[in-house]
Write a structure and sequence with these properties.
The complex is a heterotrimer. Chain A is mostly helical. Chain A has 13 helices and no strands. The longest helix of chain A has 37 residues. The radius of gyration of chain A is 25 Å and the shape is elongated. The N and C termini of chain A lie far apart (57 Å). Chain B is mainly α. Chain B has 14 helices and two strands; from the N terminus they run ααααββαααααααααα. In chain B, strand 1 and strand 2 form a beta hairpin. Chain C is an alpha/beta fold. Chain C has a domain of 74 residues. In chain C, the strands form two sheets. An eight-stranded mixed beta sheet of chain C has the order 6-7-8-3-9-10-12-11, with helices on both faces. Chain C has a four-stranded antiparallel beta sheet with strand order 2-1-4-5, with helices on one face. In chain C, helix 5 packs parallel to helix 8 and helix 6 crosses helix 8. The longest helix of chain C is centred in the middle third of the chain and has 18 residues. Classes of the chains: A mainly alpha, B mainly alpha, C alpha/beta. At the A-C interface, loops of A face helix 10 and helix 11 of C.
Chain lengths: 302, 318, 341
């Protein structure tokens, strides 16, 4: 046997294919679980959810009727965080405020992600002129300052939880649209997509079963950051006086109200809601970062 | 490169046109129609008719749109009945002040965030990185208005080094009182640095993981050559694009800052207009700010293309 | 390359003895290279073969002085008279590119996408020899011509993405060789290229090896690459040497069971119609927990108890070395598992 006749048809991978310990589909879970900071963030989120929604079942306070005789009392017996300027128990208020905050944040994020993913996936998959037009619309909406638009909308509509969700979600869907469009662009030339096309699978099915499912990492990461951003937006809106009418409240409104009393030294009116906001946003950001690492996405995604 | 420029500029024009269409729609979505919304609910039919006639709000919508668009392009942004001044005039007074405030803050933010982001990436997982990451993360998660209030509390109220309120008056008056500008600028800068340095850190880390860095090392390059001769240029591109994309974020931050510090800029103007339902002003601000954002994005993309030749041949602009 | 040529070239340019490389991870240590010894002479090409994860890339990096900070090397790597093991970063920097060059697998990522070709090829000259920009560009144009790039002067001002894969790899090779190092490490240099381009690049290596007289280490998992272009072969398994010798010898009469299995799993022109390609059962070993005995034993059909007891000592026959207690003899070598000849 002479060496000149030894050729390889393609690079001969020597040895059997290595099977990894877990199927790649669940790999991100274990990577995420190993990120201590991200896990702590997740725990904080769960804790806050429990605090806001389950808390009131154990800690009963009246959040409807004001008691002006009990206004701005510092923390003491029976009132772990004192009372606010109309007599509501601050700790109870924090729970109620948390409910609204989290409802709006999750709702707005969900709306933004659903809208954005659909828009972006269709644009990226279809391509061509339609893609161009859809993305120019996104660019145009992005150029319009969201806060201004929100101000405008909030003065026209009386804010309530659903309205806030709508308003915040409608300004937030643009970023996921761009991200998913980029994913769709790169995925649509993958072989399994081309194969599906050749088999006659219709576009909507391809978009859902292949494009969107394979962008799930980007979607999850962005959804997490959306929640964090929504909380900050609601807080800013409430600070500017465009939040929900009392007796409903949210942490942003509580902080904003409390800021009126900074110089009076009523620290329990500002720090609890403020810290709650920072903690929650921090937690979601950290979880978002962890998810991004777990899915192996780079900084340009999410 | 030329083809890229032409394509990007054409896209920008399309976007601006779309913005104008959106604003026009907003104008006509006002409750009761634009005339009634602007003149107030008590406006008489004659006044409404006169208003419509004067402002070209008669006839089919496309004609109205054309009339309105040509008006805008020639500088007619409407008239504020609330403030009894033309929108263009109001904006003309306020725009330089806001541009100045935002401009200085962004420049400072970039000057701080780039070295910080680089430092964090290079010293990854060491003490310096952890501290900076924590600080920026917390800052990033804090609402801008709270940052502003804390700064006021510490530096104005307790330490008395700077005033709590921003300078008032015209542009030149504002400039003549730099002390009062410190806190507003600091607020926007801090909030922007927090966002930027996170991104820059990731960007630099991504570049350092690239194979060409290893290749450069194999030729004898040391850390300084790699950072300044290779990574800086490659990481700069995405950072510039980030700047372009952050314009809406910076606008929001500026608006809140102007509100907290009572800075007589476009943001405060817009807020007051929103609460007093002065629609011409709101819409005028929207048009101008949106146009500025589109142009800013365009410039950012062009700079990115200058820095990274791959972008010039990219098939699709994300 | 024959014995006489080796003697005439003045002895080995690269001499590795007892090299151990450990990579320290947060929760474990990977024993990537264990007790490796080999020699390469001027103008010689040695193929370092093994499957993914066998430590051959780490070995390549060690020889190029490019081990990451988490790696700890023990033993000896001698480039001429210079000892590499134990050198500090600054000292290693001086030999990179000048005494030893390295070419990586993917030419697209090895080149900085935002820098022009000319600048990247001449970079080592400017860094190490203090050449001026124009001098470096001149030398780059020369080198690009030598590696067979058409219209070299025009290419100087182009960017990497404007070139095809094969051309890019030539650029990378030119960049690695611009200071004319005595040793070139090529880590999977053709894996990212199509078959025709592969052949061209490998011929380029042959030609440069003759012209510049450098010692070449072809690190690859592809037996075909080694067959046509290496003078000697060094087979690695689980960080250790399994077998080493002249290429013809190894292919004609492999001794280590692993080598035999490797050769049996490769498709050849003379493999008979309808025969099955051999496969190696089991999984590659975990390098964080090296076996006490022969690492291949769990997957070897001829393994016995003493195989697992201690690492097999090396047997030799002239230049042919193997570490196997149950080596293939000339008969069994004719009939690799699952196939027929």
């Amino acid at each position: 046997m002479s060496l000149e006749n030894v050729t390889t048809l393609g690079a001969a991978e020597v040895g059997p294919a290595t099977d990894s310990q877990q199927p790649p589909g669940r790999l991100w879970l274990s990577t995420f679980a190993r990120n201590r900071l991200a896990v702590i963030g997740l725990v904080v989120i769960v804790a806050l959810l429990l605090f806001s929604f389950v808390g009131p079942l154990f800690y009963h306070t009246d959040q409807i009727h004001t008691r002006l005789a009990m206004e701005t009392l510092p923390p003491g017996k029976g009132r772990p965080l004192g009372t606010d300027d109309v007599g509501y128990d601050e700790l109870g208020r924090l729970m109620v405020g948390g409910q609204t905050m989290l409802e709006v944040a999750f709702g707005a994020a969900a709306l933004a992600v659903v809208l954005g993913v659909l828009w972006g996936a269709v644009a990226g998959y279809v391509g061509g002129f339609i893609d161009g037009l859809m993305m120019r619309i996104v660019d145009a909406l992005l150029a319009i300052p969201a806060l201004l638009l929100l101000l405008f909308l909030a003065t026209v509509f009386r804010p309530s939880v659903p309205i806030l969700i709508l308003v915040v979600g409608v300004t937030a869907w643009l970023v996921p649209a761009r991200l998913i469009r980029a994913e769709a662009l790169s995925l649509r030339s993958r072989e399994y997509v081309l194969a599906a096309k050749t088999m006659g699978v219709r576009a909507p099915t391809i978009i859902f079963r292949h494009i969107i499912t394979n962008s799930i990492g980007t979607i999850l990461v962005n959804a997490t950051f959306q929640i964090a951003d929504a909380i900050l937006v609601v807080a800013a809106l409430s600070f500017l006086g465009l939040g929900i009418a009392p007796p409903a409240t949210n942490w942003g409104a509580m902080l904003s109200d409390g800021l009126n009393f900074t110089y009076s030294g009523f620290w329990w009116l500002t720090y609890p809601p403020g810290v709650a906001i920072v903690l929650t946003v921090l937690a979601f950001n950290v979880v978002g970062d962890g998810l991004r690492d777990a899915f192996g996405l780079d900084s340009k995604h999410g | 490169m030329i083809r890229f420029l032409l394509r990007r500029c054409a896209q920008a024009v399309v976007v601006l046109l779309l913005v104008s269409v959106i604003v026009f729609c907003l104008l006509h979505l006002l409750p009761g129609g634009p005339a009634r919304a602007i003149l107030g609910v008590h406006a008489t039919p004659t006044a409404v008719a006169a208003f419509n006639r004067e402002n070209g709000l008669e006839g089919p919508l496309p004609v109205q749109y054309w009339h309105w668009l040509t008006g805008v392009l020639s500088g007619n942004l409407g008239f504020s009945y609330v403030q009894n001044e033309s929108v263009a005039s109001l904006l003309g007074q306020r725009l330089p002040k806001t541009a100045f405030l935002a401009g200085i803050s962004v420049v400072l933010a970039v000057l701080i965030a780039v070295p910080v982001g680089f430092y964090q990436a290079v010293r990854r997982h060491r003490a310096g990185d952890y501290i900076l990451t924590t600080v920026t993360l917390v800052l990033y998660s804090t609402p801008a208005f709270w940052v502003a209030i804390i700064l006021i509390d510490v530096f104005a109220v307790r330490l008395h080094v700077v005033p709590a309120e921003a300078p008032q008056g015209s542009f030149s008056e504002v400039l003549s009182d730099p002390h009062a500008l410190v806190l507003p600028v600091l607020t926007i800068t801090l909030v922007t640095v927090a966002a930027f340095s996170r991104y820059i850190r990731s960007s630099v880390l991504d570049e350092l993981a690239q194979e060409y860095v290893r290749m450069a090392r194999s030729k004898g390059a040391g850390s300084r050559v790699i950072l300044f001769g290779h990574v800086l240029r490659n990481a700069a591109g995405p950072v510039v694009t980030l700047l372009g994309l952050s314009l809406p974020f910076i606008v929001s931050g500026t608006l809140i800052t102007e509100y907290v510090f009572n800075y007589p800029g476009v943001g405060l103007l817009a807020f007051n207009a929103a609460t007093s339902q002065d629609y011409p002003v709101i819409l005028g601000v929207v048009i101008v700010v949106a146009a500025a954002t589109v142009v800013g994005s365009l410039l950012a993309d062009i700079t990115h293309a200058v820095l990274d030749p791959r972008v010039r041949t990219a098939a699709g602009i994300a | 390359m024959s014995e006489e040529k080796v003697q005439a070239s003045g002895g080995p340019v690269l001499r590795v003895s007892g090299l151990d490389v450990d990579i320290r991870l947060p929760h474990s240590v990977v024993h990537a290279v264990q007790d490796v010894s080999l020699e390469v002479s001027r103008g010689e090409t040695v193929g370092i073969v093994g499957e993914s994860g066998c430590g051959k890339s780490t070995l390549g990096l060690a020889l190029a002085g490019l081990l990451p900070p988490e790696a700890v090397a023990r033993g000896s790597i001698k480039l001429g008279d210079r000892e590499l093991v134990g050198l500090r970063e600054r000292q290693l920097r001086a030999i990179r590119g000048t005494e030893v060059g390295i070419v990586f697998q993917d030419p697209m990522t090895s080149l900085n996408p935002t820098k022009r070709i000319g600048a990247q090829v001449g970079e080592a000259l400017r860094l190490q020899r203090g050449a001026s920009k124009s001098a470096a560009l001149e030398a780059a144009a020369d080198m690009l011509d030598r590696v067979g790039l058409p219209r070299p002067r025009e290419q100087l001002s182009r960017f990497p993405h404007e070139l095809s894969g094969g051309m890019r790899q030539r650029v990378v090779i030119a960049a690695a060789l611009i200071c004319e190092p005595g040793v070139l490490v090529a880590d999977e240099p053709t894996t990212a290229l199509d078959v025709t381009t592969q052949a061209q690049i490998l011929e380029l290596f042959d030609r440069l090896s003759d012209e510049l007289g450098m010692a070449t280490l072809l690190v690859t998992h592809d037996m075909g690459v080694v067959a046509g272009h290496a003078d000697r072969v060094f087979v690695m398994y689980a960080g250790r040497e399994a077998e080493a010798g002249g290429t013809q010898t190894i292919f004609d009469s492999p001794r280590h069971r692993y080598t035999g299995a490797l050769l049996g799993s490769v498709l050849r022109m003379e493999t008979p119609h309808r025969s099955r390609l051999g496969t190696i059962p089991g999984r590659p070993p975990d390098l964080t927990a090296p076996a006490a005995g022969c690492s291949f034993a769990p997957r070897c059909e001829a393994a016995s108890d003493d195989c697992a007891a201690a690492p097999p000592a090396a047997s030799a026959d002239g230049n042919h070395r193997w570490s196997c207690l149950h080596p293939l003899d000339s008969e069994t070598a004719q009939a690799p598992s699952g196939g027929t000849r």
